[in-house]
Amino acid sequence: MRIGVPSELKPDEYRVAITPAGVRELCERGHSVLVQAGAGEGSAIADDQYRAQGATVLADAATVFDAAELVLKVKEPQPAEVAMLSERHTLFTFLHLAAQPELARDLQESGATCIAYETVEDVHGRLPLLAPMSEVAGKIATQAGAFMLEKPLGGRGILLGGVPGVAAATVLVIGGGVVGMNAAFIAIGMEADVFVFDRSIDRLRELEVAFGGRASTVYSSALAIEEMLPIADLVIGAVLVHGARAPHVVTREQLRLMRTHAVLVDVSIDQGGCFETSRPTTHSHPTFEVDEITHYCVTNMPGAVPITSTYALTNATLPYVIELADRGVAEALEQNAGLGLGLNVRAGEITHPGVAEALAAPSLSTSR
User: What is the mean pLDDT of the chain?
Assistant: First the structure.
């Protein structure tokens, strides 16, 4: 199979969809890997490193798309890339279509088969391709929040961990999944006063053990969150519903309960955001204020640490890429039910039920 890897076009995105190790694995199996010149520079991977493992380096994205059957990316395709997709292409990348109806329509019109990293599941119902980026995003969320709390950045002017004789900051983490757990671990390490909210009692039990009593766990309800907002310095939104838009857990009205210049970090922004007042931002312009509350809503947080993120992501995606290439797309989707759940668009139709519901589109059968 001919596998194409273009450079990422999203602003402030420095990751790349394959490493030299991945190129070697694919080439040794008889596949052709076509990498756009300079695609790995943001992750400190030179073109010659790809060539040394068997890749062909091509001058531009158009040449890569023209030659490729399977296109590997990190983030959702930008308009110029969508224009290069056709019925003969399979796209494998993060899509987050529930929050992007225009992109969903454009991908339907392209006729391409589109598989989303974020809805691929393993045999336990977990999200193996989203997990590594969730780990990175969770850790960045706390780091970014701590930074934004500094007065020169518009924050309250409080140190997350405090000092002897001065109380630490209060951190609320809403959502106890992979993002929330990692955000909480960093906040605990920075010696903040941490509260983690989740709706699963079993998950709260697991977190109690994982945190070793160093954070408080709270059953998540609208009232429980509302009662804690007045003492919160940093609130991290880490809510995920597979394939669907994130629910709002903090409303515009509730912002008035919070301390002036407290910080909200919305890690759910790719799925529409879990704070009513959230809107997408970039690393170049990461924050905005609503009612004197700082909002950090960067849509590609892991892109800030591309060396870590590129290797973590491709370690997870490579087995699935190999399966798609070795078996062929149709057979791989048929034989691997978890990979099949990654299918979001095929032959002009939205195929994932959660995405279809979010887009108010008819859902097709999930049987494959």
Answer: 95
